[in-house]
Amino acid sequence: MPELLILNGPNLNLLGTRQPEVYGHQTLADVESLCAQTAKAHGFSVVCKQSNSEGGLVDALHAARGTQVGVAFNAGAYTHTSVALRDAISAIELPVVEIHMSNVHAREDFRHHSYMAPVCLGQISGFGADSYRLAVEALIRHIKGS
Ligand code: DQA
Predict the structure, then answer these.
(1) pLDDT tens, 33-49?
(2) pTM reported for the whole predicted model
(3) Strands (DSSP E) along 1-146, which ranges?
(4) What CATH architecture applies to the domain 3-144?
(5) How far is the CA of 76 from the centre of ligand 1 (A)?
Protein backbone atom coordinates (compact mmCIF):
# COMPACT_ATOMS: atom_id res chain seq x y z
CA MET A 1 0.00 0.00 0.00
CA PRO A 2 1.51 3.41 -0.94
CA GLU A 3 2.25 5.52 2.12
CA LEU A 4 1.74 9.24 2.82
CA LEU A 5 3.57 11.31 5.42
CA ILE A 6 1.30 13.41 7.65
CA LEU A 7 3.68 15.98 9.10
CA ASN A 8 2.87 18.49 11.83
CA GLY A 9 5.03 21.31 13.11
CA PRO A 10 5.37 23.35 16.29
CA ASN A 11 2.58 23.56 18.86
CA LEU A 12 0.31 21.21 16.93
CA ASN A 13 0.96 18.55 19.58
CA LEU A 14 -1.22 20.79 21.78
CA LEU A 15 -4.27 20.57 19.51
CA GLY A 16 -7.42 20.08 21.54
CA THR A 17 -6.34 22.45 24.29
CA ARG A 18 -4.48 25.12 22.27
CA GLN A 19 -6.70 28.14 21.50
CA PRO A 20 -9.80 25.98 20.83
CA GLU A 21 -11.64 29.06 19.55
CA VAL A 22 -9.13 29.10 16.65
CA TYR A 23 -8.15 25.44 16.24
CA GLY A 24 -11.16 23.54 17.61
CA HIS A 25 -11.34 20.73 20.14
CA GLN A 26 -9.91 17.84 18.15
CA THR A 27 -6.55 16.51 19.29
CA LEU A 28 -3.55 15.70 17.10
CA ALA A 29 -4.42 12.01 17.52
CA ASP A 30 -7.97 12.73 16.24
CA VAL A 31 -6.60 14.57 13.21
CA GLU A 32 -4.08 11.81 12.48
CA SER A 33 -6.82 9.19 12.70
CA LEU A 34 -8.97 11.22 10.27
CA CYS A 35 -6.01 11.24 7.83
CA ALA A 36 -5.52 7.47 8.25
CA GLN A 37 -9.23 6.74 7.60
CA THR A 38 -9.32 9.04 4.57
CA ALA A 39 -6.18 7.51 3.09
CA LYS A 40 -7.34 3.94 3.76
CA ALA A 41 -10.60 4.55 1.89
CA HIS A 42 -8.46 5.26 -1.20
CA GLY A 43 -5.99 2.41 -0.74
CA PHE A 44 -3.22 4.43 0.93
CA SER A 45 -1.64 4.21 4.38
CA VAL A 46 -0.13 7.01 6.47
CA VAL A 47 2.79 7.54 8.78
CA CYS A 48 2.32 10.49 11.15
CA LYS A 49 5.14 12.62 12.58
CA GLN A 50 5.22 15.81 14.64
CA SER A 51 8.16 17.98 15.64
CA ASN A 52 8.46 21.28 17.45
CA SER A 53 11.84 21.93 15.86
CA GLU A 54 12.66 23.13 12.36
CA GLY A 55 15.50 20.61 12.02
CA GLY A 56 13.21 17.75 13.05
CA LEU A 57 10.79 18.73 10.28
CA VAL A 58 13.63 18.98 7.72
CA ASP A 59 14.79 15.49 8.77
CA ALA A 60 11.25 14.08 8.43
CA LEU A 61 10.97 15.54 4.92
CA HIS A 62 14.35 14.04 3.94
CA ALA A 63 13.31 10.64 5.33
CA ALA A 64 10.14 10.72 3.21
CA ARG A 65 12.19 10.58 0.02
CA GLY A 66 12.09 7.05 -1.31
CA THR A 67 9.70 5.97 1.48
CA GLN A 68 6.48 7.97 1.18
CA VAL A 69 4.74 9.04 -2.03
CA GLY A 70 3.49 12.43 -0.81
CA VAL A 71 3.28 14.72 2.20
CA ALA A 72 0.40 16.54 3.90
CA PHE A 73 2.17 19.20 5.94
CA ASN A 74 1.04 21.70 8.56
CA ALA A 75 4.27 23.54 9.35
CA GLY A 76 2.55 25.82 11.88
CA ALA A 77 4.41 29.09 12.43
CA TYR A 78 7.44 27.88 10.43
CA THR A 79 5.25 28.33 7.35
CA HIS A 80 5.79 32.06 7.73
CA THR A 81 9.50 32.03 8.59
CA SER A 82 11.36 29.03 7.22
CA VAL A 83 13.47 29.06 4.09
CA ALA A 84 14.98 25.76 5.29
CA LEU A 85 11.60 24.00 5.06
CA ARG A 86 10.95 25.47 1.64
CA ASP A 87 14.37 24.22 0.47
CA ALA A 88 13.70 20.75 1.95
CA ILE A 89 10.36 20.55 0.10
CA SER A 90 12.09 21.51 -3.15
CA ALA A 91 14.88 19.00 -2.52
CA ILE A 92 12.75 15.91 -1.94
CA GLU A 93 10.78 16.18 -5.18
CA LEU A 94 7.59 14.77 -3.64
CA PRO A 95 4.14 16.35 -3.87
CA VAL A 96 3.47 18.35 -0.69
CA VAL A 97 0.13 19.90 0.29
CA GLU A 98 0.33 22.81 2.74
CA ILE A 99 -2.31 22.66 5.48
CA HIS A 100 -3.70 25.21 7.90
CA MET A 101 -6.65 24.62 10.19
CA SER A 102 -7.36 28.33 10.53
CA ASN A 103 -7.83 30.71 7.58
CA VAL A 104 -4.38 32.28 7.73
CA HIS A 105 -5.44 34.98 5.24
CA ALA A 106 -8.12 36.22 7.64
CA ARG A 107 -5.65 36.54 10.52
CA GLU A 108 -2.63 38.76 11.32
CA ASP A 109 -0.61 40.10 8.36
CA PHE A 110 2.44 38.02 9.30
CA ARG A 111 0.42 34.84 8.65
CA HIS A 112 -0.47 35.89 5.10
CA HIS A 113 2.93 35.02 3.66
CA SER A 114 4.00 31.42 3.22
CA TYR A 115 7.58 30.57 2.27
CA MET A 116 6.35 27.08 1.39
CA ALA A 117 3.38 27.83 -0.86
CA PRO A 118 5.35 28.36 -4.11
CA VAL A 119 6.96 24.90 -3.84
CA CYS A 120 3.82 23.04 -2.68
CA LEU A 121 1.15 21.46 -4.83
CA GLY A 122 -1.39 23.74 -3.16
CA GLN A 123 -2.58 25.15 0.12
CA ILE A 124 -5.68 24.25 2.15
CA SER A 125 -6.55 26.75 4.84
CA GLY A 126 -9.52 27.49 7.05
CA PHE A 127 -11.49 24.26 7.39
CA GLY A 128 -10.39 23.16 10.87
CA ALA A 129 -9.66 19.44 11.17
CA ASP A 130 -11.34 18.98 7.80
CA SER A 131 -8.37 20.81 6.19
CA TYR A 132 -6.41 17.58 6.78
CA ARG A 133 -9.04 15.39 5.11
CA LEU A 134 -9.19 17.73 2.12
CA ALA A 135 -5.38 17.77 1.87
CA VAL A 136 -5.13 13.97 1.95
CA GLU A 137 -7.83 13.66 -0.72
CA ALA A 138 -6.16 16.27 -2.95
CA LEU A 139 -2.78 14.58 -2.54
CA ILE A 140 -4.14 11.14 -3.41
CA ARG A 141 -6.06 12.47 -6.39
CA HIS A 142 -2.86 14.12 -7.66
CA ILE A 143 -0.77 10.98 -7.12
CA LYS A 144 -3.30 8.71 -8.82
CA GLY A 145 -3.61 11.13 -11.74
CA SER A 146 0.12 11.59 -12.23
C1 DQA B 1 -1.57 27.08 11.54
C2 DQA B 1 -1.54 28.59 11.25
C3 DQA B 1 -0.19 29.19 11.64
O4 DQA B 1 -0.18 30.58 11.36
C5 DQA B 1 0.06 28.99 13.11
O6 DQA B 1 1.33 29.49 13.47
C7 DQA B 1 -0.10 27.56 13.54
C8 DQA B 1 -1.21 26.78 12.98
C9 DQA B 1 -2.99 26.49 11.29
O10 DQA B 1 -3.10 25.25 11.25
O11 DQA B 1 -3.95 27.23 11.16
O12 DQA B 1 0.63 27.06 14.38
O13 DQA B 1 -0.67 26.42 10.68
Answers:
(1) 999 999 999 999 999 99
(2) 0.97
(3) 3-8, 45-50, 70-74, 96-100, 122-125
(4) 3-Layer(aba) Sandwich (3.40)
(5) 4
